[in-house]
């Protein structure tokens, strides 16, 4: 149960931050959470691919998820 709350918190913060960084009109709270959670998976994959290992703390998780969410937003905008 705590893991789910952790993912929602990280997803919300990362999705919001990615939206602000990408200067979009925003996708809404639920979509921001989803972008952040999926971004965490994408960001974790990319960080490991580059050769780093995420440390697992709150800040590290948010940075990794934000990186992934930014990449997802960029891809979505290219496909539009």
Helix-strand blueprint:
Elements: H1 2-21, H2 29-50, H3 58-79
Summarize the structure.
The chain is mainly α and 80 residues long. The chain has three helices and no strands.
Can you characterise this structure?
- The protein has 80 residues and is mainly alpha-helical.
- It is built from three helices and no strands.
- Helix 1 (2-21) crosses helix 2 (29-50) and helix 2 packs across helix 3.
- The N and C termini lie far apart (36 Å).
Features of this protein?
single chain; 80 residues; mainly alpha; 3 helices; 80% helix
Would you count the extended β strands for me? 0
Strand-residue fraction? Answer: under 5%
Q: Count of DSSP helices?
A: 3
Provide mean pLDDT, rounded. Answer: 83
Radius of gyration: 12 Å
Main sheet specs = none
Q: Provide the succession of SSEs.
A: HHH
Which secondary-structure class do the elements indicate? mainly alpha
Estimate the helix proportion, in percent. over 70%
Ends distance: 36 Å
Oligomer: single chain
Q: What overall form do the CA principal axes indicate?
A: globular
Runs in which pLDDT lies below 50 for 5 or more consecutive residues are: none
């Amino acid at each position: 149960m705590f893991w789910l709350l952790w993912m929602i918190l990280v997803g919300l913060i990362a999705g919001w931050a990615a939206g602000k960084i990408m200067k979009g009109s925003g996708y809404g709270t639920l979509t921001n959470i989803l972008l952040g959670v999926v971004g965490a998976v994408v960001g974790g994959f990319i960080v490991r691919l580059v050769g780093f290992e995420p440390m697992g703390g709150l800040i590290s998780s948010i940075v990794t998820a934000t990186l992934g969410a930014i990449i997802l937003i960029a891809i979505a905008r290219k496909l539009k």
